[in-house]
Design a protein that fits this description.
By secondary structure, the protein is an alpha/beta fold. It has helices at 2-12, 18-28, 49-67, 90-105, 129-147, 159-171, 246-256, 273-282, 299-325, 345-352, 362-384, 396-402; strands at residues 39-44, 75-83, 111-114, 152-154, 185-187, 198-202, 232-234, 236-238, 327-332, 337-341, 421-423, 426-432, 456-462. The strands form three sheets. It has a six-stranded mixed beta sheet. A five-stranded antiparallel beta sheet has the order 9-10-13-12-11.
């Protein structure tokens, strides 16, 4: 019965047409400069069915352009293979996959990236091998993409990966944003501190009241003088196959006669929780609430995850708008001291009003405003903190202190003293810094520069690094 059900699912699978793949790719990875601008794509290839199908579709996509240049601008493809050095045969297998890419798909510039493990470490004996290998893998991919001038990295995750992730997180006790699943687009993970790979490599102008040019007298410095602000950019991950099943990807390989190799550990349900869930799904042994594309469906959970992802992206976008509206009074990178004028609560309220349908009650509105304010605070803290990540849950006190209108009870007029406090490994101090009176009647939705705090700036000072920490 099980074999019959799986056979039916496989029989319904059809190879993905290159034009369909191209449409899905361009939904998330748009060329900078317009639809016919050059597009540079790196592809992470392991040799498994998923990544080989991805490489196949990318190769066929280029053939589409050869037949009709109007469908896509000039496109450069670069395949990367990671040799994990966890098994004796890993290097030979990497070379084999490289030969497949050349002979079957025409990739003539594939690069093999070798993971370097600490001296004396046998990766095959690590209890957390998958986690460590993932970290190292993304770091070498991030560096390689930046060095090759490839800002876009494609991954072969499919709908089955999304379902497994949702089930794993649900079983793990995650709720709310923890159930947002896999994003079609995201910054490359585990690359903090690698220039050009993580949120760097591009420059942006941030409004700066100190007007950096040294030959400008202090008295004449103003916002008409601007300097390059904090960098942006980095490598972006794109997962254009999330809408397709693994059977669809296998059908692609069969259609074009492209080989692949299956990791022998994928079939062992005892290797990892993900393997266990995959095994249960394939055997149709999951509870009815956790059914998958292998014969049942996760439509309710996947729909909720999509809604959660959209809310997450909207809140992030609002925090970015607020961040761009901030006025940097001064910043000393050597000491990690940042003075910034923050937006008022009214700026956050204005953003919330853009999507009133998401606000059901006053309590919901307040929670939404506090959440967006906390994301802004975290974004600012990341400029100076030695921490690579900061939990929003740890920023509640700081957020309500910096945005007192969000607090359940505001201090009285005579109790306006705010003592310094530490959050996210940074000392936060409110400093009186009145500006000339200005009209708040005009709101510029993009920068909201008329809704900055006219009375105070906040100083963020990085705590010293510990003995075991490297700046």
């Amino acid at each position: 019965m099980i074999n019959g059900a799986l056979a039916k699912v496989k029989s319904l699978a059809k190879p993905i047409h290159p034009s369909v793949y191209l449409r899905e790719l361009l939904k998330i990875c748009r060329p900078t400069g317009g639809p016919h601008a050059p597009l540079r794509l790196a592809i992470a290839v392991s040799g498994g069915p998923d990544s080989m199908a991805l490489a196949t579709l990318c190769a066929q996509m280029k053939h589409l352009r050869e037949r009709d240049p109007a469908v896509l601008g000039p496109t450069t493809l670069q395949a990367f293979i990671v040799d994990h050095k966890a098994r004796d045969e890993s290097t030979r297998e990497a070379e084999l996959v490289k030969s497949w890419l050349y002979h079957h798909l025409g990739f003539d510039n594939t690069k093999i990236l070798t993971l370097k493990w600490p001296s004396g470490v046998d990766p095959s004996q690590l209890s957390n091998f998958e986690h460590k290998a993932r970290q190292l893998r993304y770091r070498v991919l991030g560096r390689a993409c930046f060095e090759a001038g490839m800002p876009n990295l494609l991954m072969g995750h499919h709908s089955g990966d999304m379902e497994e992730t949702l089930i794993m997180r649900l079983v793990g006790g995650y709720r709310g944003e923890g159930l947002r699943g896999i994003f079609p687009e995201s910054s490359i993970p585990d690359c903090e501190g690698i220039y050009g790979a993580y949120l760097s490599g591009g420059r942006n102008l941030v409004r700066d009241a100190t007007a950096v040019p040294e030959d400008i007298p202090l008295a004449t410095r103003g916002k008409e003088y601007q300097k390059p602000g904090f960098e942006y950019g980095g490598v972006k991950l794109y997962r254009p196959l999330l809408g397709f099943s693994k059977h669809d990807l296998r059908a692609v390989l069969e259609e074009y006669g492209v080989p692949s190799v299956e990791d022998s550990t994928n079939g062992d349900p005892t290797v990892s929780p993900r393997n266990t869930i995959r095994h249960l799904a394939q055997q149709q042994l999951l509870p009815k609430a956790f059914v998958t594309d292998e014969g049942q469906n996760l439509s309710a959970l996947k729909t909720r995850a999509e809604t959660t992802r959209q809310n997450y992206l909207r809140r992030n976008a609002y925090a970015d708008v607020l961040f761009q509206a901030c006025q940097i009074e001064s910043f000393d990178a050597r000491t990690g001291c940042l003075n910034v004028r923050l937006p008022l609560h009214a700026a956050i309220a204005h953003l919330i009003e853009r999507h009133p349908q998401s606000i059901k009650t006053k309590e919901t509105r307040t929670a939404e405003e506090e959440y967006i304010a906390a994301r802004l605070v975290r974004q600012i803290l990341h400029i100076v903190t030695p921490l690579s990540s900061i939990s929003l849950q740890n920023l509640k006190y700081g957020t309500l202190t910096m945005f007192p209108d969000l607090a359940p009870s505001r201090p009285s007029e005579g109790d306006d003293v705010v003592p310094p406090f530490t959050t996210g490994r940074a000392l936060c101090t409110r400093v009186s810094s009145p500006v000339a009176s200005q009209s708040h009647s005009t709101l510029e939705p993009d920068l909201m520069q008329d809704l900055l705090d006219p009375d105070y700036v906040w100083r963020f000072e990085r705590q010293p690094y510990g003995r075991q920490e490297l700046p």
